[in-house]
Specification:
Radius of gyration: 18 Å
Largest sheet: 2 strands, antiparallel
Helix content: 55-70%
Low-confidence stretches: none
Distance between the termini: 46 Å
Strand order of the largest sheet: 1-2
Length: 103
C-alpha cells in the first residue's frame, strides 16, 4: 500500500468515525431533552472528541490533496503524517524542521 493509499484509507476511516460521533451526539442531546435532564459535562466531553476527529480529518484531507505524491513523512513527536514543506505538525504542533535562531 502506498503512502497516498494509506492517507485515503485513514481519511475515509476518520470520515466514518466523524459521522458516527455526530449521530451519537445528536441522539444523546435528544434523549437528554426528552427527559429534561441535561448533563453538560457529558455533552462537552463528546463534543470535544468530535472536534478532535474533525481536526484529524481536516489534516488527512490536506494530505490527500498534496500534489507531490503523498505525505513527506511522519511527525517525530506524534507519528502523524505530514505534507511536503510543512514546518509544523498539523496534529500536535511539533516542529518538523530544525528552527535556526540567528542573532
Amino acid at each position: 500500500m502506498t503512502g497516498r493509499d494509506e492517507v485515503l484509507r485513514r481519511r475515509d476511516e476518520l470520515a466514518r468515525e466523524l459521522a458516527e460521533l455526530q449521530f451519537d451526539l445528536g441522539g444523546l442531546a435528544y434523549e437528554m431533552a426528552v427527559r429534561d435532564h441535561w448533563r453538560l459535562d457529558v455533552l462537552v466531553r463528546r463534543a470535544a472528541r468530535l472536534q478532535e476527529i474533525d481536526a484529524q480529518l481536516a489534516g488527512a484531507e490536506r494530505l490527500a490533496r498534496v500534489d507531490a505524491g503523498g505525505p513527506a513523512g511522519t511527525c517525530p513527536a506524534c507519528g502523524a503524517l505530514h505534507a511536503h514543506g510543512a514546518a509544523f505538525c498539523s496534529h500536535c504542533g511539533a516542529a518538523l524542521m530544525p528552527i535556526s535562531i540567528s542573532s
